[in-house]
Specification:
This protein is 22% helix and 31% strand. By secondary structure, the protein is α/β, with parallel strands linked by helices. It has two domains: 2-104, Translation factors (Elongation Factor Tu (Ef-tu), domain 3, Beta Barrel); 112-240, Rossmann fold (3-Layer(aba) Sandwich). The strands form two sheets. Strands 4-3-6-1-2-5 form a six-stranded antiparallel beta sheet. Strands 9-8-7-10-11 form a five-stranded parallel beta sheet, with helices on both faces. The N and C termini lie far apart (43 Å). The relative contact order is 0.15. Bound molecules: flavin-adenine dinucleotide. Flavin-adenine dinucleotide binds next to strand 4 and strand 5. Flavin-adenine dinucleotide binds at residues 45, 60-63, 75-77, 79, 81-85, 125, 128, 215, 239, 241-243, 245.
């Protein structure tokens, strides 16, 4: 039984795109109908495989943006010089087929029983798996306290902006805009560093469970700062999206 489930997860299958939603100028959420989807955990990802007419294949990983129990959704940021992301954000339409395998990953996941308090740290599209965690918390009625610190370049780059603006009991959303801030901006206006973490992160003595996700350089700098401030390394989970970031 377990063997069948694992084989199924690692087998490529064809999903149908049911909707493509605009999040920002360069970010789209792609909702999928995946036949026989076995279910996923908050924080897991899938692999996507594109094959062109000449048989050239490109594979990339994308976090699952939706909560367990919701249709599988991926949120993809277009990298203008990228191979795969421009196709997913600009070409893909509802009704198209998309090859994927998953769900994948058992480390960067959160279940209500894992407890908290939760510290979620996102750089750019790194917010995607953290959104799945937030929705999972909400849907399961968990009351674990959460702080999300989310770094974007500008307000227009904030993904899930409307959703994050909705006040949710026990969830604090703290935003920083690193490149440009609109008039009257009440959030932070600098990159996430040790000083900013000291202001917004839970004290180390609270033994927070931390998820850091985004460009590799962001994840490495932030997780190092947290551990240096006394966070226990085994409670700081990291997911690197690649690239050097800029968030
Ligand atoms: C586990 C996992 C989950 C991921 N989840 C998501 C997700 O939810 N949403 C999402 O948009 N991306 C996600 N990514 C990143 C994604 O897999 C691709 O790397 C990204 O879409 C770029 O692919 P590309 O083919 O367009 O660019 P490529 O052709 O691979 O690269 C183009 C250029 O961009 C640089 N680059 C590559 N990746 C990044 C990056 N993430 N940031 C900045 N520069 C980069 C490369 O160095 C290169 O110069 C995830 C990665 C991993 C490993």
């Amino acid at each position: 039984m377990a063997g069948t489930a694992v084989r199924r997860r690692l087998t490529w299958q064809v999903a149908k795109v049911t909707a493509v939603t605009v999040e920002t100028a360069s970010v789209r959420t792609i909702t999928l109908d995946v036949p026989g989807w076995p279910g996923h955990q908050a924080g897991q990802h899938v692999d996507i495989r594109l094959t062109d007419e000449d048989g050239y294949v490109a594979e990339r990983s994308y976090s699952i943006a939706s909560a367990p129990g919701e249709p599988v959704a991926l949120t993809v940021e277009r990298l203008d010089d990228g191979e795969v992301s421009p196709y997913l954000t600009d070409e893909l339409r509802a009704g198209d087929d998309l090859e994927l395998r998953g769900p994948i990953g058992g480390y960067f996941v959160w279940e209500p029983d894992d407890g908290g308090p939760l510290l979620l740290l996102a750089g750019g599209s790194g917010v995607v798996p953290l959104r799945s965690i937030l929705r999972h918390r909400e849907r399961t009625g968990s009351t674990v306290p959460v702080r999300l610190l989310y770094s974007s370049r500008t307000l227009n780059d904030v993904i899930y902006r409307n959703e994050l603006d909705i006040p949710t009991a026990g969830v604090e959303v703290i935003q920083t805009l690193t490149r440009h801030q609109p008039p009257g901006w009440a959030g932070y206006a600098r990159r996430v560093d040790a000083a900013l973490l000291a202001e917004v992160a839970w004290p180390a003595a609270a033994m927070p469970l931390t998820y850091v996700c985004g460009p590799t350089s962001f994840v490495e700098a932030v997780s190092q700062d947290l551990v240096q401030s006394g966070y226990r390394p085994e409670r700081v989970k990291t997911e690197r999206f690649g690239g050097t970031g800029g968030t």
